[in-house]
Write a structure and sequence with these properties.
Organism: Massilia rubra
Pfam family, one: HupE_UreJ_2
Strand content: under 5%
Protein name: HupE/UreJ family protein
Distance between the termini: 45 Å
Keywords: Membrane, Signal, Transmembrane, Transmembrane helix
Number of strands: 0
Shape: globular
Radius of gyration: 18 Å
Order of helices and strands: HHHHHHHHHH
Number of helices: 10
């Protein structure tokens, strides 16, 4: 495939992803009205509802899923996949719990912009950009852990918007975090099924680079959307 053909495919992928992301932009970390009502009015321990909400948030959180796709894109061994996903889970679990329990107030637009840039970083790494352009390869495992911290902060800042009751907050946040982990495992399982099938086809080698260009572009769209929101406050 010529460079021009590859560029055309990347532009087409970018256009489709940009339209989807901009259409759903207002729903980033979105919470339905019924879920908002529950979060704002609930007092005491509600383990199962918070477990469900955590799983729902992860499965529908396209920014988290795009990052996970980038992380496992070129990972083939389950041991490696498990290690990277564990590091990501450790990162976002830590800041999710500490952020809510300690009342860390961080601008949600800035946190979500960094989450968008984490997708850019991961795709750029998959393209070999650090070795070929920068000349230095950052530690991949450390990067996943660090960006996991920011993904957890994104969850924490959204939850703090609802003025959660302090009554039962600790067990409820533990339940929410467990739900996030269950949702991550469910989403990861679906992603791996799709990736395994795609890797078995001839199109994977042809489209892998184009797909990462599109992934990186989607991260820029997300980051740009959030930076725009920050500047418009």
């Amino acid at each position: 495939m010529s460079f021009n053909d590859r560029a055309k495919r990347a532009r087409a992928c970018l256009l489709g992803m940009a339209l989807c992301l901009l259409t759903a932009g207002a729903l980033a970390h979105g919470v339905s009205e019924s879920d908002q009502g529950f979060l704002q009015g609930a007092t005491g321990v509600h383990f199962l509802p918070y477990l469900y909400l955590g799983a729902k948030h992860m499965v529908t959180g396209y920014d988290h899923l795009l990052f996970l796709c980038g992380v496992i894109f070129f990972l083939y061994r389950m041991k490696e996949i498990g290690l990277y996903v564990t590091l990501f889970a450790l990162g976002h679990s830590t800041t999710l719990l500490l952020g809510v329990l300690n009342g860390w107030h961080i601008n949600a637009y800035l946190v979500d912009a960094i989450i968008g840039l984490s997708i850019v970083y991961r795709a750029f790494d998959n393209l070999g950009g650090f070795n070929s352009v920068v000349g230095v390869q950052p530690n991949k495992k450390a990067a996943v852990l660090i960006f996991g911290f920011f993904h957890g902060l994104g969850l924490a800042t959204k939850l703090q918007d609802f003025s959660l009751s302090p009554d039962g907050l600790v067990p409820n946040m533990i339940a929410f975090n467990l739900g996030v982990e269950l949702g991550q495992l469910l989403a990861l399982g679906m992603i791996l099924i799709v990736m395994r099938y795609w890797r078995s086809t001839a199109s994977f080698a042809r489209h892998a680079l184009t797909s990462n260009f599109a992934l990186m572009s989607a991260g820029f769209v997300l980051a740009g959307y959030q930076f725009t929101g920050f500047l418009s406050q």
